[in-house]
Design brief:
Blueprint (H helix, E strand, L loop, with lengths): L1 H25 L10 E3 L3 E8 L5 E10 L9 E7 L1 H12 L8 E2 L5 E3 L4 E3 L5 E9 H7 L6 E11 L10 E9 L4 E11 L5 E11 L4 E5 L15 E6 L5 E4 L8 E13 L6 E16 L6 E16 L8 E2 L1
Parallel strand pairs: 2-10, 5-9, 16-19
Antiparallel strand pairs: 1-3, 3-8, 4-7, 4-9, 6-8, 9-10, 11-12, 11-18, 12-13, 13-14, 14-15, 16-17, 17-18
């Protein structure tokens, strides 16, 4: 009997403790952590922006508010260009190799859609739309340079800004059309008059409008060629799908032999909603390489392909191979 009373006593104490615990939980605030506003895609971000017919594009910047409860306030944000963060990034990445520094997108080539942006009460996000004009980039800078638009939140009313690293973005600006991108394959660079050759296994086509891309000749890239602007070639696609290679760099002495762009579609058996689009570019040209102490005339021949999945409903009239 005494043992039963002892057990009942323990159970009673446990029930009282649980009730007290529940009562204390009911007394907690809804928000366990401090709410903060921030840029959702912060830090270094690579963008491949679609170019519109008017040669402009939109860079979206997404704002958010964190926390464990619903947002019950209008949160007003402002944002500005942040060159100091880009300068710090360049120094930490490249030190004294200033020729490799990313360039800030020139003032006058972009416009913000507003002076401030509001995350409405009941919502967790808002979007800033920054319009970039490629014609202005050509006028005020170079379409062949590698640009970054550094941004940071400067004020936040309604809720405070988050930690510094979450309120900044280095937007690495790239453009795309339907044949730009990274191609894989094989290309052979031959020094004329010798048996010396170099092989590359990929090439990159960078879009500057809907029909024109550019590339760097041979094995040249921004990373391995300080004067990379002297090795630029444009690729222009005509209305029939053919391409023409040309260069405005006279010292390059560029000559195109034969260039071809072709495209085919195959069934995607892993996902019936898609076709697989395969784009192939064949290139043959010569150029003058002036990076050595002696000018060298080089010949290039190569074939490269790029594949991507495309929705069938957007390509109703293409011929599809088995």
């Amino acid at each position: 009997m005494k043992q039963k009373r002892y057990i009942y006593g323990i159970v009673g104490c446990l029930l009282i403790s649980m009730m007290l615990g529940i009562s204390s939980c009911d007394g907690l605030e809804d928000e366990l952590f401090q709410k903060n506003s921030y840029i959702i895609h912060n830090g270094w971000q690579d963008y491949a922006l679609e170019v519109a017919e008017d040669n402009t594009t939109i860079l979206p910047i997404y704002f958010g508010v964190n926390g464990t409860s619903a947002n019950d306030k209008d949160i007003c944000l402002t944002m500005e260009i942040d060159p100091d963060t880009l300068q710090k990034y360049n120094w930490e990445k490249y030190k004294n190799q200033s020729d490799l520094y990313y360039k800030i997108l020139p003032t006058g080539t972009y416009t913000f859609d507003a002076d401030s942006w509001t995350i409405p009460s009941g919502e967790l996000n808002a979007t800033a739309a920054i319009k970039i004009d490629l014609n202005k980039i050509e006028e005020l800078g170079s379409l062949y340079d590698d640009y970054v638009l550094p941004l940071r939140i400067t004020s936040s009313t309604g809720e405070p800004m988050g930690q510094n690293k979450y309120t900044k973005v280095l937007a690495h600006i790239g453009f795309k059309n339907d044949y730009s991108g990274t191609y894989s394959g094989k290309g052979i660079i031959t020094q004329q008059g010798t048996t010396y050759t170099t092989e590359i296994t990929s090439t990159q086509l960078y879009a500057i409008n809907n029909n024109i891309c550019y590339m760097f000749v041979g094995e040249k890239t921004r990373a391995n060629t300080p004067d990379y602007l002297n090795y630029v070639v444009e690729i222009e696609r005509d209305e029939w799908g053919g391409i023409t290679l040309s260069s405005e760099v006279g010292s390059l002495e560029f000559k195109s032999y034969n260039s071809k762009l072709s495209r085919k579609y195959t069934y995607n058996y892993n996902d019936q909603r898609y076709y697989t689009e395969i784009t192939t570019v064949e290139l043959a040209y010569e150029y003058l390489d002036k990076t050595q102490s002696e000018d060298l005339r080089m010949t290039f021949e190569g074939s490269f392909s790029m594949s991507r999945d495309v929705l069938r409903v957007e390509y109703p009239n293409v011929d599809v191979e088995e």
